[in-house]
Amino acid sequence: MTTQTPQETTKDVPKEIFLRDYKPPSHSFAKVELAFDLREQGTTVRSIISAVPASGSTGELFLHGDESVKLDGVTVNGSAHERYERGSKGLTLKDLPNEPFELSITTTIEPQENTALEGLYKSSGNFCTQCEAEGFRRITFYQDRPDCMSTFTTRIEADKAKYPVLLSNGNLIDSGELEGGRHFTVWEDPWVKPCYLFALVAGNLGMIEDKFKTMSGKDVTLRIFTEKHNIDKCAHAMTSLIKSMKWDEETFGLEYDLDLFNIVAVDDFNMGAMENKSLNIFNSRLVLATPQSATDADYAAIEGVVAHEYFHNYTGNRVTCRDWFQLSLKEGLTVYRDQEFSADMNSRGVKRIGDVSRLRTAQFAQDAGPMAHPIRPESYIKMDNFYTVTVYEKGAEVVRMYETLLGKDGFRKGMDLYFQRHDGQAVTTEDFFAAMSDANGADLSTFKPWYSQAGTPRVTANGSYDADAKTFTLSLTQVVPKTPGQDTKIPVMCPVAVGLVGPDGKDMELTLDGKSVGTTTVLRFDKAEATYTFTGVEAKPVPSILRNFSAPVRLTTNLTQDDLVFLMANDSDAFNRWEAGQTLLRTLLLDLIKGDGQYKMDAAITTAMRAIIAGAKEPNADKAFIARAMMVPSAGELSDMLDEGTVDPAKIHEARTFVMKTLATELRADLEATMKANSAEKYSNEPADRAARSLKNTCIGYLSYLDDAAIAAMTYERFASADNMTDKIAALNSLSDKECDERIKAFAEFYEEWNKDPLVMNKWLGLQAMSNLPNNIANVKALMEGPAFDIKNPNKVYSLIGGFCASSVNFHAADGSGYEFLADVVIKLDDLNGQVASRMVSAFTRWKKYEPSRSSAMRAQLERIRAKKGLSENVFEIVSKSLEA
Ligand code: PHE
Ligand code: ZN
């Protein structure tokens, strides 16, 4: 790509980094000893590195270092070394010895002024670090790249009264008192690691402790640290950690490798959480929970993320990435692992549906826009911009496809070989591919393009039954669409899981190529076109195609409406049962959106929905599944399915509202009965109670579309009497688009009750920001000035500004006011935190999708942002790629 220089901005032109330019490091680091002297101003860091030149070393060593780091001195083997050059990205040391030497570097940094929340910074008065991807260079000069692996010893010195807790990676090997009210600890991490896994915490923190006995009988101490007033909110995170440790032993034979595992929760954090070796640091929203302050969705997210970070100990830490282009090696794999864990802990089908919905709404959209990239990107300007739904979620789908192709046992064999070959190494996605193929003696060569090609393959499936020959023929085609920088594509192996459902609603036994293949078979579809003929098919079946969403593709089939209704009722595959209903709803909604504005409901859909709701009365009803099946495709998912240059968010909103309102009107009695039948006397956190809660709240959500004062009163009543946050938020959400006194009252009372709890306030901000009430932008602007908001706190920005961008009506207001507001915020945020600003500006990325007046208004704001002086590289990359694609 060509990138335009931001005007008079960074001293250097933002530089694009390419995978093809990878070179191994000039030196390896055998050992690193760090010493931090933490101060309110001027924290000093001394680093002693045992450096070993690689063969052919030129005597030069480049160390990354941010401009904010003050260099106090360099010594080599104990003597001052002044032959170096400092540039804006780091330090080039010259005339270094040709044999191993000791390098010592002293720097001074100002964590108290760090608003980027990368490197060493302060959150709620405590010191903490975030080094992935490239934050370590804000602490000291170092080869800040994941293939530079070393053991670390860390000494931390600080004021004892202010910072009684001093933590780093590994084992505590020394501690003591110092003069002037200060104290110190020394930590030693015996495992080699790249510096992005380094962590330090110093603070006045409370702690809960538990224990885990590993499968070989070792005792591990588990600790979770938070600010003291939150210490009673950590139990769920601890339970989740213990479950994760057990699951990884049982599923993959992976046992924890130190005597101590720490989690620290902090309020100011750019991302969700971080897998630093034995010292995970978490955004507090992913640790703290009580039934009164956190929703069922929060509980599930905590369980999943605690597991995710723990699982990184092997997939990420013990085996890490050679370079950042390999990010999906650890993230795709670890997301796959946490998805499987959550599926085992909860309802597997519902988990899969949630994961696929997210993939389709967010990742498919990314893969069709200017930021489309393969799960192994080819280049980046700022690595932070590549922690994407593509690398994570599509990456997890790619890992899942190995499992689908090789089976559970084959997959496990591949994992075992991967660890056997690469423990302690920094490797590539090719190495993972090779381990999977070799362990199974499988030829997966046509699978490889999943790593290098961007874009979501489009697969069509046409089935036909031949009653005379008793055969069912399935014809598949695939096309991978063009994406920026990739004009030609080749077919890629898509595992397509297929079953045939007989007229009795049961799966048929399948015969393919003369072999009996069970009731679900995985077709290895790796050509532009292929045909598969099942024989001995006694009666006309309905095919169930892409069961469990066996490949991340856009599927079109020739199934009729009757076929889909049949699958909704009969498919043994939970995902496809759900998908059949979604296909019906999507078809209806897209017709309405593209139509002439004369909205008409499809009676078959109302009937199908009534049947779904009626299913809740069955004795063993899967209520969580029913709640999901009742959901109408989101505005984002619909928008993604419309043509470039046509999206009018107001129309999508209208069409969705019409469908919801019509269903609510026609099914009112069923919804009210189901709501009542599933209203519990008292909160409980058992799976069945959670499922009933989600069903009940889905019913309330539908009913809120009715213009009926009684519904608003009932919803308010439920809000006021709720004994848990799930129900409170559901009721508040159901009021948030309604122009009524109950809404005003509920939001005011919620504030009164919860304004001391920042995590709960984020929910309050988010719900108001997302509201589709006309002119709600004024409310959002007022909230931005109010006491619940703080532009320096990422969670608050994501809730209020991110929430606002999710409002079809107000962000996309026809007068462009929403776009102008977002651009104002991005420009302001950019000076404080480039990562958060670039996430927010991403709401503009798909400007070309929209109808002409909105797309030109969005484009104008992108140009205004690009013209800002001193624009961060983070925002520059997103803005320039969006404009140029
Ligand atoms: N590696 C973290 C995870 O996915 C995410 C993260 C990336 C956190 C960069 C902070 C900074 O588990
Ligand atoms: Zn991760």
Automatic annotation (TrEMBL):
Cited CDD domains: M1_APN
Segments forming domain Peptidase M1 alanyl aminopeptidase C-terminal: 562-884
Gene Ontology MF terms: aminopeptidase activity; metallopeptidase activity; zinc ion binding
One of the Pfam families matching this protein, by short name: Peptidase_M1_N
Cofactor(s) the protein requires to work: Zn(2+)
This protein's UniProt keywords: Aminopeptidase, Hydrolase, Metal-binding, Metalloprotease, Protease, Zinc
Top-rank lineage group of the source organism: Eukaryota
Residue ranges crossing the lipid bilayer per the database entry: none
Keyword Metal-binding: yes
Family: Belongs to the peptidase M1 family.
Protein name in UniProt: Peptidase M1, alanyl aminopeptidase
Organism: Ostreococcus tauri
